[in-house]
Specification:
The chain has 260 residues and is α/β, with parallel strands linked by helices. Helix content is 40%, strand content 16%. It is built from 10 helices and 7 strands. Bound molecules: zinc ion.
Length: 260
């Protein structure tokens, strides 16, 4: 196949994967130009997850004039060696706030504790209340099959809110450290992040306590640069992010015993 026709083939294949659904949601225009501003929210497990996962896509939404909030499930309390939970939370909250400034996002903290994630009826309602307050059109969260239970729990609570259908939004799953953290992930949507790749990296690098050089370093399983380039290759561009779009009938799930 000629390089040019191969490129066209890849782009068409990517469109078949559903690329256009996110693009038509307000990405790629560069400015709104009469398009209704969208409210976009990203539910990530720890400070750094919204940045390393869909950070480029979030930056594109923000740059196009849409409102973006990064909703951190916890403050990374267990994630700084030699520091108490309070000290680590302080360090990582500041890093998240700095990263949000780079992306053009607003930080929100859910209030769970790193490494001790809880999924129960009370937290379904708390997450529902939080997302109701955000009034999102689009929500991104972790793919639920993930080696980290904080990622799993953030995803499950968000899925429950989507299924209960009291707060209505389009739901997309993102990947982090594919093969190591995110597992069994087969994207339906790809977004070209070539134009904001460096900006995304600057946001990831705000998380100094998480040794970002290692995340982008060569030979690391789940390597950030390889993921972006691998997804880019699938779209025929230099760098991309991949998503699975949630589809299906919202059943209006209820919580037995809560009378709702
Ligand atoms: Zn995480």
């Amino acid at each position: 196949m000629e390089p040019s026709s191969r490129r066209t083939f890849l782009q068409q294949a990517a469109a078949g994967l559903g690329t256009l659904s996110l693009a038509s949601a307000g990405l790629g225009a560069g400015e709104l130009g009469g398009v209704k501003p969208l409210r976009v929210a990203c539910v990530g497990g720890h400070p750094g997850d919204p940045e390393a996962g869909p950070g480029g896509t979030l930056a594109l939404f923000a740059a196009a004039g849409h409102s973006v909030s990064n909703i951190y499930f916890n403050r990374g309390e267990a994630g700084v060696e030699g520091k108490t939970y309070d000290e680590a939370a302080g360090i990582r909250t500041a890093e998240a706030v700095a990263a949000c400034k780079v992306l053009g996002a607003r930080p929100v903290f859910v209030g769970q504790i790193d490494g001790s994630a809880v999924v129960d009826n009370a937290w379904v309602l708390k997450m529902e209340e939080l997302l109701a307050g955000e009034r999102p059109d689009i929500v991104f969260t972790h793919w639920p099959i993930d080696s980290h239970k904080d990622h799993q729990c953030a995803s499950l609570l968000t899925i429950q809110v989507w299924m209960r259908a009291k707060v209505k939004f389009e739901l997309y799953f993102f990947e982090v450290g594919s093969g190591v953290e995110t597992m069994n992930f087969h994207p339906t949507d790809l977004v070209d992040i070539t134009a904001v790749r460096e900006l995304k990296r600057r946001a990831v690098e705000c998380h100094v306590s998480q040794r970002p050089a290692e995340i982008y370093g060569p030979g690391i399983p789940g390597n950030q640069a390889i993921m972006e380039e691998y997804r880019g290759m699938q779209l025929g561009v230099k760098a991309a992010e991949a998503f699975v779009k949630m589809v299906g009938l919202r059943q209006g799930n209820t919580i037995a015993g809560l009378g709702d």
